[in-house]
Amino acid sequence: QVQLVESGGGLVQAGGSLRLSCLASGRSFNSYAMGWFRQAPGKERDLIAAINWSGSRSYYADSVKGRFTISRDGAKNAVYLQMNSLKPEDTAVYYCAAHQSRNSNTYSQGWRYDYWGQGTQVTVSS
After folding, report:
1. Nearest Cα to 108, choosing from 75, 61, 55, 69?
2. How confident is residue 105, by pLDDT bands cut at 50, 70 and 90?
C-alpha cells in the first residue's frame, strides 16, 4: 500500500502559478502510476494529469493541456503538479492518487486509481 499527502494549495490570482506536491510513503513508489484529480463544488472528480511508473509518459486533460505539468521524483517518492496561467475555473480541491501498475497503457484511466490523498484546496480569484 501507499499513503499520499498533498501540499501546495492556496489562493492565487488569475494568471498566477502554483506547484502542488504529493509525498508518498510505503513501498515500491516506482511501481505506481500517479495522477492528479480535481473536484469543483457540485461536479465530479476528474483526472487532469497522470504520469506512468517510469515518468516516460504523461497525460493531460484538454482543460489543462499546455498550462499544467506533471512530474515525479523517484528518489523523493514525490509527484508534482506545476500549474501556470491559472484561471478561476481551475478552482477545486486537488487530489493526488496512485495506481499500482507498470502497464503504461492504463495510467491515464482514472477509474483505476485506488489510493488517494486528503486533497488540497486551490482557489483562483478573478
Report:
1. 61
2. confident
